[in-house]
Amino acid sequence: MNVDDTVTSIKNMEIRGAGRIARAAADAIGTMVRSKTWNNLEAMKKDVLDAKAKLIASRPTAVSLLNGVQFVLKGLNNCKSVEEAKELLTKNSDDFIKASNEAVERIGVIGSRRIKDGATIMTHCNSSAALECIKAAHRSGKKVKVYATESRPWRQGILTVNELAKEGIDVTLIIDAAVRSVMKRTDIVIVGSDTITSNGAVINKIGTSQLALAANEARVPFIVCGETYKISPQTLFGDMVTIEERDISEIIRKGEVPESVKVFNPVFDSTPAKYIDGIVTELGIVSPGSVYEIMIKQFGDMEFK
Ligand code: RI2
């Protein structure tokens, strides 16, 4: 898919999920670099940077998008010719997509070890990384039961229950307001992440922090899954994560309420580190307090801006 089509598909959520949008953006740059010809390196760099700007602006919260694009552009400034740059960026794009898919698989294996045989799991929204843990536990022969939240307004919970049912997993759909009540029957909560900050807070689908609070109150372990490219190095330098607000038409029909009524549609929230028992990455399970070390290991040689 070309850059503009990818941007449109990410904006209107035909392509969604923090990992998937990062892979789609990496693929869009790879496709552009492979198919286009340039007479000089400066012209190529300009097009690549324009593409980067458009792609990272398509959704503002998930840092996976920025990190994925940064990974593809890594080394561009050292290239001496268009040919060299084309070869490098094409390879970077392929490498990122491969590493990203492998990371999700690895997270599944590692996270599944935290799921006991007979466990009842609660999950929120539709996270490939979180669902991979549940599927891996199921495939290894553990009997698991899942409560999946509807996740208004986009109702990604419908995707989740379909995906898990297809695997033969015992899954129950609940409305978002049922979280605290159903927490009594839950042994472990497993969710995904869009951005992980340097102090171990996790930004994920709106409502995630409610699951965390309810889990904390009920003494239920709260586990977050995230590939290391969900970590935001910029947060180390004080940058705040922008919480995306989407159109009110996603939650209310025109004319349903008087014009004077304000409607607010933030689509992510932040869960503080103190409510998180572990973050499952492709490198292993880390405590939220260890995010900084992972960040340095993974991003030490990258430009943060
Ligand atoms: P994976 C999604 O955002 C959800 O917040 C989900 O938990 C997160 O991305 C991570 O998903 P949205 O695109 O990368 O549905 O684990 O708004 O697939």
Structure description:
The chain folds into two domains: 97 residues, translation initiation factor eif-2b, domain 1 (Four Helix Bundle (Hemerythrin (Met), subunit A)), CATH 1.20.120.420; 192 residues, Translation initiation factor eif-2b, domain 2 (Rossmann fold), CATH 3.40.50.10470. The strands form two sheets. A seven-stranded mixed sheet has the order 3-2-1-4-7-9-10, with helices on both faces. A three-stranded antiparallel sheet has the order 5-6-8, with helices on one face. The longest helix has 31 residues. With 305 residues, it is α/β, with parallel strands linked by helices. The protein binds 1,5-di-O-phosphono-alpha-D-ribofuranose. 1,5-di-O-phosphono-alpha-D-ribofuranose (RI2) binds next to α2, α6 and β6.
Low-pLDDT residue spans? none
Q: What order do the helices and strands follow?
A: HHHHHEHEHEHEEEHEEEEH
CATH topology of the largest domain, by name, is Rossmann fold
Global morphology? globular
User: What share of the residues does DSSP label as strand, in percent?
Assistant: 5-15%
Using DSSP, what is the number of strands?
10
Bound molecules: 1,5-di-O-phosphono-alpha-D-ribofuranose
Total discrete domains = 2
- Give the spatial strand order of the biggest sheet: 3-2-1-4-7-9-10
Number of distinct helices: 10
Per CATH, the superfamily of the largest domain is Translation initiation factor eif-2b, domain 2
- Classification by helices and strands: alpha/beta
Q: Give the integer mean of the pLDDT values.
A: 96
Helix proportion of residues, in percent?
A: 40-55%
Most strands sheet: 7 strands, mixed
CATH architectural designation of the largest domain: 3-Layer(aba) Sandwich
